[in-house]
Structure formats: structure tokens, C-alpha cells
């Protein structure tokens, strides 16, 4: 479901010195630019439920404690066109209110505007899941969207 929503609505990337990261309700995507011609043998990527480490050619790109917990068995990394590493982490908490403000604790944080846009996007993604007959991909949202937006679960259907 989220893949189709992202294709229509785009992503909100958080730029970093090595590339960028972005998120959906379910996943965190990390894109790392590496020197052209990099081979998979040069990449050392350790993906844990709370920790991550990436080295390329023996040089550390990043290492630390993730902002949130992930399902380590479902984490993957790929080397694309020998110049881009894409890492996909599956969040354990897949609620719209679980918007990571940084990739690692205290590092690679989103500025206030990017954080606001990420939270808006996750809230719209939640609305899309709750209302599959509607298309929220081009919608704008204002008001109470922090923490995943308003809770309509107590309303009668």
C-alpha cells in the first residue's frame, strides 16, 4: 500500500553529508552516494534492530544507535549502479505517530521544516490506509497532524 502512495505523492528526504534518508509508516529508506565503480565486496553493512554500521572501502560512513527500533530480519541493502547504496529498514512501530526525527540518535536529524513535512506525509499515508477509496496523494493537511493526526477511532460508523 505505501509504495503506491509514495509513487503518487513523492517522498520527503532528509539530506545528509553522504546522501539522504526518508520514511513511510512502515519503513526507513537510506540512500548513500558512494564512489562510482564501488563493488559489493567493498561494502560492510551491519543492520541490527537498534544499531547500524556502514563502511565502504574500509572507511566508516556512519555508525550508531537508530532513532527507533526495526525488524533486523527484514532489513536489506543493495548496491545500485556501483554508485548508490540503498538500505531499507522495517520499523517495528508502524503507526503514523512514529515519525523519526533523525536517523541515528543525535545524528542526521531533520530540520524543523523537513520534520513537519515528514509528519504531514505520514498522517496522509494513515488517512489513505484508513480510506482506501480516496486518493490523498496530492492532498494538503493543516491543523492537528502531530503524532499521526486526529484519532477518529471513537466515532461511530
List the defining traits of the structure above.
157 residues; alpha+beta; Immunoglobulin-like; 5-stranded antiparallel beta sheet; elongated; acetylation; HSP20-like_chaperone; cytoplasm; CS_dom
Structure, described:
- It is a single chain.
- 17% of the residues lie in helices and 32% in strands.
- By secondary structure, it is α+β, with helices and mostly antiparallel strands.
- It has one domain (2-130): Immunoglobulin-like.
- Strand 9 (102-104) and strand 10 (107-109) form a beta hairpin.
- 27% of the residues are buried.
- The mean pLDDT is 87.
Pick out the low-confidence regions. none
Helix fraction bin: 10-25%
Quick one: how many beta strands?
A: 10
Class per helix and strand makeup: alpha+beta
CATH class: Mainly Beta
Q: Give me the Rg, rounded.
A: 17 Å
User: What is the helix/strand order?
Assistant: HEEEEEEEEEEH
Amino acid at each position: 500500500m505505501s509504495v503506491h502512495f509514495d509513487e503518487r505523492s513523492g517522498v520527503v528526504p532528509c539530506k545528509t553529508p553522504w546522501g539522504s534518508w526518508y520514511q513511510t509508516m512502515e519503513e526507513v529508506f537510506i540512500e548513500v552516494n558512494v564512489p562510482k565503480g564501488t563493488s559489493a565486496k567493498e561494502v560492510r553493512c551491519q543492520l541490527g534492530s537498534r544499531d547500524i554500521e556502514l563502511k565502504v572501502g574500509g572507511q566508516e560512513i556512519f555508525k550508531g544507535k537508530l532513532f527507533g527500533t526495526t525488524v533486523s530480519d527484514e532489513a536489506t541493502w543493495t548496491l545500485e549502479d556501483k554508485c548508490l547504496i540503498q538500505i531499507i529498514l522495517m520499523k517495528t512501530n508502524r503507526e503514523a505517530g512514529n515519525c523519526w526525527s533523525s536517523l541515528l540518535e543525535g545524528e542526521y536529524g531533520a530540520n524543523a521544516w523537513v520534520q513537519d513535512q515528514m509528519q504531514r506525509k505520514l498522517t496522509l499515508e494513515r488517512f489513505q490506509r484508513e480510506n482506501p477509496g480516496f486518493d490523498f496523494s496530492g492532498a494538503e493537511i493543516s491543523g492537528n497532524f502531530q503524532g499521526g493526526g486526529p484519532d477518529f477511532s471513537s466515532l461511530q460508523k
